[in-house]
Write a structure and sequence with these properties.
This is Uu.00g006010.m01.CDS01. This protein has about 160 residues and is mainly alpha-helical. It has one domain. It contains six helices and no strands.
Length: about 160
C-alpha cells in the first residue's frame, strides 16, 4: 500500500468513526511511522495547517524517505558491484595433486594449511559480503511505506 492509499484508508475509517477533520491530523499522525519526520507532530497540532495540507506534507515526506532509501540501496549495490574481491577459480587437480595436498594438510583452493574448505578465510570474505547484501535487501523491503509516486494534496474524506 502506498502512502496515498494509506491516507485514503485513514479518511475512510475516520468517516465511519465520525472523527472531525480537526482531529484527523492527530489521528493520522498517530498511525504513521514514528520516525517519519518529527516536524509532523508539531504540524498535527497546529490549527493554522489544514488537514489537506497536513496530508500533503505526510505524503511528500514519505515519498522523499522512500526515494532516499532507494538511492542508498542503489549506492550500496554499486559499491558491492565495484568492489573487487579476488575470486580464485577451483583448480582442476589431478588425483596425485589432491593426494599430495591432503597429505600435507593443505586446502585445495588456497593451498594454505590449517582449515577445511568450509573454514577458508578467502571464501569467508565473499560469504560475508553476500550475507551483508542479503541482510540489507531484506531490511529495505520490510520498511517500505511509500512508493515513489507524485503527491496529491487533495485527500479529503470523499476519496
Amino acid at each position: 500500500m502506498d502512502i496515498h492509499q494509506f491516507i485514503r484508508k485513514v479518511n475512510s475509517l475516520a468517516d465511519k468513526a465520525g472523527i472531525d477533520k480537526d482531529l484527523r491530523k492527530t489521528t493520522l499522525y498517530e498511525h504513521i511511522p514514528a520516525d517519519l519526520d518529527t516536524r509532523l507532530l508539531k504540524n498535527s497540532k497546529d490549527s493554522r495547517i489544514s488537514y489537506e495540507d497536513f496530508t500533503a506534507s505526510v505524503a511528500d515526506i514519505a515519498v522523499a524517505r522512500h526515494r532516499a532509501q532507494e538511492e542508498r540501496k542503489e549506492r550500496k549495490l554499486t559499491r558491492l558491484e565495484t568492489t573487487t574481491v579476488p575470486v580464485k577459480e577451483t583448480p582442476s587437480l589431478s588425483e596425485k595433486e589432491k593426494n599430495a595436498l591432503m597429505d600435507a594438510g593443505l586446502y585445495f583452493l588456497c593451498k594454505k594449511p590449517g582449515h577445511q574448505s568450509r573454514h577458508c578465510p578467502d571464501c569467508k570474505i565473499i560469504a560475508n559480503m553476500l550475507q551483508a547484501f542479503d541482510h540489507e535487501e531484506s531490511d529495505t523491503q520490510s520498511s517500505s511505506i511509500a512508493k515513489n509516486t507524485p503527491s496529491d494534496s487533495s485527500f479529503d474524506s470523499e476519496n
